[in-house]
Design goal:
Blueprint lengths: L1 E7 L3 E8 L14 E10 L2 E8 L4 E6 L4 H13 L14 E6 L10 E2 L2 H9 L8 H15 L4 E5 L9 H4 L5 H6 L8 H15 L7 E7 L3 E7 L2 E5 L20 H11 L3 H10 L2 H6 L5 H9 L3 H25 L4 E5 H6 L1 H8 L20 E2 L8 E4 L4 H17 L1
Parallel strand pairs: 1-6, 6-8, 9-12, 12-14
Antiparallel strand pairs: 1-2, 2-3, 3-4, 4-5, 7-8, 9-10, 10-11, 13-14
Length: 407
Amino acid sequence: MKILVLNAGSSSHKSCLFDLNPGASDGTPTAPVWRASLDWTHAEGVVELTAENQAGEVYQASLPIADRAEGIAALLKTLVEGRTQVLETLSDIDAVGHRVVHGGRDYQTPVVVDAGVKAAIRSLISLAPSHNPANLQGIEAIEQLLGDVPQVAMFDTAFHAAMPEAAFTYPGPYAWVEQGIRRYGFHGISHQYVAQRAAQMLGRDIAELKILTCHLGNGCSLAAVKGGIGIDTTMGFTPMDGLMMGSRSGSVDPGILIYLMRQEGYSADQLDTLLNKDSGLKGLSGLSNDMRLVTEAMAQGNAQAKLAVDVFVHRLRREMGGMVASLGGLDVVVFTAGIGENKSLVWQRACEGFEFLGLRLKADLSRAKDDQDIAAADSAVRVLVIHTQEEWAIAQACLALLRSHRA
């Protein structure tokens, strides 16, 4: 079955095509036969298109396209034309899977997209204003381009929907509960995938494991996974809560915001920009939201960069401790995403806080190409570095859902 996965963002889109045999998978990720991306961040009204097939043939172009649907059409064209062609026609696509950031309270599993699902995604735009509009545009663009091909939405919030009430309820007035103001959590597709992959790597039943998953990229979140179920997480009502991130503040005293409104005259929009775009690593370092650039500056003696890294690690360890308490123990720590997969400094400094649990890392923390166990042989807790494969997870969910519908 040929399944296209589309991850439509506000300024970039990523896409993969998987050719899956419904009865042959043992749960091990398979490589896509084609992948492509669109990036509008380089120049106004211009998109950078990159496509590559499994044979390693690459197509790159700068195109005068501002419209997102038109961009997706150009992206899909590389599937059936030119050096990256892998299909005879777009009608060979059997289904399309989408990552949708916010599913609210109603969507706890992947669903086949219909008018009601689209209306729900639209109604949740106020809770994910940077993501849900782009996700919806991607769905509607596929409708225009591929007609009635089945589409499946997989929600980033869904994995966290099984959290206990005490974990998702905020301690405000009870009216908040009735309004749907609660902890939703995000990065759920990634947390679910790496937890399952961890159990597979260790040859253990996930139902037996207490797993702490650390998704550390430009956006950062942790999840406590017990028996394969997400029971706690750091992101909340919005993706701004919890850990310090690339340009987001993470949790701050709400009194600071009241102070800035009263004393400095900040508007809601100014606070939004401050907390989402001008804080985190970027705000404290004064340099960048990219951990690589910040750690390079720290190594050169930049005091602000050092402070930014120190605060990032401190808050990471503190929140990790909270997840361990929710789990009631710890069998496995997983690091994933850009920082989590590549920064040995973060692995080492984050794990130093848990040596009292018998957690010890190997002396050699160099990054391997494949998923790896970086814990010492005698460590009481395994520490894994896993490349998150959200697109593959979405394709698998698509496959399972469509098979169940046909059955």
